[in-house]
Amino acid sequence: MHGRATGCLPETHRIRRMTQRFAVHPVTPQPRLVQQTVDLLRRGGLIVYPTDSCYAFGCELAARSAIERIEAIRATDRNHNFTLVCRDLAEIATYARVENWVYRLLRAHTPGPYTFILPATRDVPRRLQNPKRRTIGIRVPDHPVPRAILAQLDTPLMSSTMLLPGDELPLTDAADIYDRLRGRVDLVIDGGNCGVEPTSVIDLTSNHPQVLRTGRGSVKYFV
Fold it and tell me: Taking 80 as the threshold, does the pLDDT of residue 5 lie above it?
């Protein structure tokens, strides 16, 4: 269990909510629990879920209040870079401009523990894009839980790493996450320990890939 932050969470959005906790099988997620998660997301809910890198916050793309709650919990500013979590390559093309050479790279490395920086399309709200470059982080996770959710949700998730103010590493124990965020999020999905190493971040907005962060995904194909 990681040490707790010394400071308090911001007062903004400090509304106490009922927080559910689901124990979801990390390989064969229970359809009933997946459907309940999807129903909650469609109502604008905020969840914490496991991925192939570490736990993350997630909400629907249009759930502005949930996005603001993530910003408040993580104590970030409006320039915080969110990630758009998609179910497949076809969905990526709706939200990012993908050239042929980029498509080949994405096809070879998705699903997987990578976040790719791409030019955003008009389907991405401007407040979720990088304010200067008009880009968006895109990811297709290789984990049964988010893939099951995305298959039923039929829209991407806005996502942010499960890292709280004052912590050096993302939280990886669902019980600890529940204790820290009870009353602040709507659901914590317990899918077991999924590690603390974040995704590797690859910028694909120029003529050649640029490694912005080395994480769980191998970067040897991008250098």
Answer: no
What are 25-44's pLDDT values in tens digits?
A: 999 999 999 999 999 999 99
71 inside domain: yes
Structure tokens given for 139: 């990811």
Calculate Rg over the CA atoms of the chain: 17
Give tens-digit pLDDT for 127-163.
Answer: 788 878 889 999 999 999 999 999 999 899 999 999 8
Residue-range definition of the domain harbouring residue 117: 20-213
Helix H or strand E segment including 128: none
Neighbours of 128 (CB within 10 A): 20
Question: What are the Cα distances from residue 39, in Å, to 45, 61, 174, 193?
Answer: 9, 14, 21, 25
β-bridge partners, 190:
23
Q: Of the candidates 168, 195, 184, 159, which has an alpha carbon nearest to the alpha carbon of residue 81? A: 159
- What are the Cα distances from residue 165, in Å, to 14, 47, 71, 183, 217? 15, 18, 11, 17, 25
> Is residue 141 within 8 Å of residue 67, measured between CB atoms?
no
Q: What pTM does this model have?
A: 0.88
Using the 8-state DSSP alphabet, how is residue 126 labeled? G
Q: What is the CATH number of the domain that holds 144?
A: 3.90.870.10
Mean pLDDT of the chain: 90
User: What's the structural domain count of the chain?
Assistant: 1
Burial of 197: CB neighbours in 10 Å, binned 0-12, 13-18, 19+: middle
